[in-house]
Amino acid sequence: MSRGLKIVHTADLHLGVGLSNISLGNEEIERKRILDFINQLKKIRDFAVKEKCDFFIIAGDVFHHRRPSGFVLDEFSKIIGSMLKEDIVVLVVAGNHDQPVSKDVRPYIKALHDIGPKNFFYIDKPTVKSIKGFRSGKTVCFICLPYLHPTLFDPKSYEDAIKNIFTKLHGKVESEYDYLVVVGHFLTRGAKLSKGAKMIIPVDDIPISERSISSDDVSYVALGHVHKAQEVAKRIIYSGSVERINFGEEEDEKFFVFIEESGGDLEYTFEKLKCRPMLTIPSLRIGVKGKSINLTKAENPTGALLDVLERVKILEGAIVRLICTLRSDQTIDVERLDEFFSSKNVLHWFLRNEPVDVDRPIIDPVIGKKLEEIFEEYVRRMFEKKVSQDILDVVLKEGARILRKSMEEV
Ligand SMILES: [Mn+2]
Questions:
Q1: Range among 178-187, 286-295, 378-387 rated most confident
Q2: Which of 116, 167, 199, 283 is the most exposed place for a label (fewest CB within 10 A)?
Q3: Does residue 392 carry a pLDDT above 90?
Q4: Which residue has the higher pLDDT, 335 or 369?
């Protein structure tokens, strides 16, 4: 009896990150956190081995940093090696984090590819590749679309450029295959972002239509880049990241996707990954309203804060972010909070002191002007008569957007 084709699709492993944009400030905690991500990959690997999958697809962003540590590189290599031994084909299509910033630099992961294992592929250029699965004997033709940086294109025609690349690759597809699968790393227009994902997607990303990278004969589109798992459209899927990468993903559940051949077609299910809880206090999710815990009127701010915390359900192993508002003459007894949180077995907690009105424009205290105004003045002074009005407008608009974004970033 012939076996059906089986594929696992994951993406956005971001191995090596503790929390993106946030320093945990403690090596042991960082290490535990890095292991969280590695352990998620192990779980997915175990699933693929148990199910005797043909293909293990990673749709970009393997390592968080362009120079992963030896530990992270070795752990990844061991996990991949154990799948290769089981005759699983591992296909990695490069995400933005996998690509070097300069042409002269090579990504570490390419070294694994260059050893030349028969069933490991790292693809960093748009490529068509037909591969026969060892288990099912079914041939999958992969159209691989690594992340293509928008700055390499005219922003107005970015989407057309991607669409042309897809069409060109599609034209190269030979007829000898059982299923046609696209693997890509892009922001698509239909994608929903995690609640705080503004800070995860590169600021210069240009969303493209999911239709631009698919066609009717494609059985499945395996996407990476957006960290929230979702079906953008039928057969067009983001597996999402494997762990919550920062507080922007606090409310996300995490998954990988299991794809199985059924009646001449590919069906897919989201497989849930248990991951470490993250908790911002206050948040409506836990019934504590407001943007911050206002302690400015408390005589004993530590006591008042602990009163709030006593009412909250804090999950074991959580990473907790406290947002409080304190007067400059008030202090919090860190030792008492440490005691409280270690009694709850949290992995890590930290406190952020927010000004009372977090929405107010950011004023430079010396010049007394809004940062956006200062930026505009500077750009006008430097470039007003040197570049066209069109370019000036784009610079001002984009600059203001990046400024606002950087202010939001936590
Ligand atoms: Mn990405």
A1: 178-187
A2: 116
A3: no
A4: 335
**Which residue reads 């120079």 in tokens?**
67
Rounded distance from Cα 239 to ligand 1 centre (Å): 12
Domain tally, the chain: 3
Predicted confidence (pLDDT) per residue in 54-111, tens digit? 999 999 999 999 899 999 999 999 999 999 999 999 999 999 999 877 777 889 999 9
Longest CA–CA span in the chain (Å) reads 77
Clarify whether residues 267 and 293 are in a common domain.
no
User: Residue 332 is part of which domain span?
Assistant: 278-353
User: Residues 211, 329: one domain?
Assistant: no
Q: Are residues 259 and 284 in the same domain?
A: no
Say if residues 91 and 43 touch (Cβ distance below 8 Å): no
Cα 62 to middle of ligand 1, angstroms: 9
Mark whether 218 and 309 lie in a shared domain.
no
Residue 225, domain member (yes or no): yes
Q: What spacing in Å lies between the alpha carbon of 388 and ligand 1's midpoint? A: 33
* Domain match, 153 and 22 both: yes
Torsion of CA 62, 226, 36, 124, to 10 degrees: 0
- Which domain CATH number covers 238? 3.60.21.10
Ligand 1: distance of its center to the CA of 224 in Å? 7
Question: Of 88-92, 97-101, 184-188, 361-365, which gets the smallest average pLDDT?
Answer: 361-365
Domain termination residue (choose one: 249, 273, 297): 273
Report how far ligand 1's centroid is from the alpha carbon of 213 (Å). Answer: 17
Say whether both 29 and 109 belong to one domain.
yes
Contact 228, 254 (CB under 8 A): no
Q: Do both 295 and 191 map to the same domain?
A: no
Q: For residue 224, what are the β-bridge partners?
A: 185
Please tell me the pTM assigned to this model.
0.85
Residue 31 located in a structural domain: yes
As a whole number of Å, the CA-based R_g of the chain is 24
Å from CA of 202 to ligand 1 middle: 8
pLDDT at 35 over 60: yes
- State the distance from the centre of ligand 1 to the C-alpha of 227, rounded, in angstroms: 8
Does residue 261 share a domain with residue 143?
Answer: yes
Cβ-count burial of 272 within 10 angstroms (0-12 exposed, 13-18 middle, 19+ buried)?
A: exposed
Residue 136 Cα to ligand 1 middle (Å): 31
Using alpha carbons only, what angle is made at residue 206 by residues 234 and 230, rounded to the nearest 5 degrees? 30
Q: How far is the CA of 236 from the centre of ligand 1 (A)?
A: 17
Measured in Å, residue 95 CA sits from the centre of ligand 1 at: 5
